Amino acid sequence: MPAVVETPRSTVTPIPPNGQQPASPAPAGPVSEAAVQAFAERMLRSFNEAAVTLMTSIGHRTGLFDVLAQRPAATSREIAEAAGLNERYVREWLGAMTTGGIVELDPATHRYWLPPERAACLTRAASPNNLASVAQWFSVLGRVEDQVVAAFKHGRGVPYAAYERFHEVMAEESGQTVVAALDQHIIPLVPGLAQRLEQGIDVVDVGCGQGRALVHLAERFPRSRFTGVDISAEAIAAGAATSAERGLGNVAFRVLDAAAWEAREAFDLVLAFDAIHDQSAPAAVLRNIRQALRPGGVFLMQDIAAASCHHGNLDHPVGPFIYTISCMHCMSVSLAGGGPGLGAAWGKELALEMLAEAGFARVSVEQLPHDVLNYYYVAWPEDNRLQGAASEART
Length: 395
Ligand SMILES: C[S@@+](CC[C@H](N)C(=O)[O-])C[C@H]1O[C@@H](n2cnc3c(N)ncnc32)[C@H](O)[C@@H]1O
Prior knowledge:
The protein has helices spanning 33-61, 64-69, 76-83, 87-99, 116-122, 131-134, 136-142, 145-154, 166-186, 193-199, 212-220, 233-245, 282-292, 319-336, 347-357, 385-394, and strands at residues 3-6, 104-106, 111-113, 202-206, 225-230, 251-255, 267-273, 293-304, 362-366, 374-380. By secondary structure, the chain is an alpha/beta fold. The protein starts with a strand and ends with a helix. S-adenosylmethionine binds at residues 160, 170-171, 174, 178, 207-209, 229-232, 235, 256-259, 273-275, 278-279.
């Protein structure tokens, strides 16, 4: 796994252009018809992919991909019956899926099937690789388009409460990107952390949402004590309900604004999964996290993998996705709370600068092979590399 150790005092310097020749800002002569045609075709491809994405979200929510994956080629009526859905709707959805290259069709028998390599990316059984779950973001965010359009004029953002299904979809994403990777990939990012968790430490997850990561950790490490804090009462209620269902006695959930948090030297490990960049007061939250750590404690922050400037992200594999989610949600919710609107692509340079300002002396930045979307920042209040080297030399 590639690891980059950063100096804590990096500044936000522009990243050199990526070598691509940018399109000329002003046309030098008459526009070629072929160039216009090529661009129009590119836009049509975008519309088709957007349409497939919307229908992919519906295929996930209705369970149609799961039904298709579990059966041989079937007619629209058979598929609708198996899914408990209306045949006319299922047939129209199949029209989008077949023309979109997701579902296959035998014209002679009018039977449809989902090839296994596509089922491996689109079904609940394929989780944590279920991309159909990710497609839900576009419909969640599409619902607030009017408010975002208005915010382009008034600039005051869109409040969290405007986003229906946000916590539900976020919890699904957490299940795939965080929970599925915790044991094998994320916990091992901090040397010795698994052993400390086994022995028993105090852990808090800031902006825990519905708390899936915390519940997983509480089950795996019964000697440690876990607290989930989130500003959303709805998300905290869901986390508390899950923990009660599983009969966990070592996890508590609290509604709390992390910007007004007064914990001092109370935790050995602070976690924040995708929860810093959309804060209304991110600098205060980072300071509070620093103060909440005991000596020897560590802050593990998962946040979006990006550079802090547009030109540093031109080759990003999911650049448009990140900026769109940010504009439609992350930046907007921060602005709605009177915050700076860092945005999802606040980037590594700014993140490191803010961590240093909050009092973290050493930060390493890791990226996991399964996760192009995130960096994992491991931040220590003390720079104990010399101590570590000395103890390594003794063993
Ligand atoms: C993008 S979600 C991530 C949720 C969760 N960590 C996960 O990975 O599923 C960000 C979370 O931060 C919470 N949040 C935002 N501002 C907060 C604040 N000031 N204090 C505590 N939680 C906050 C939101 O309610 C939301 O649940």
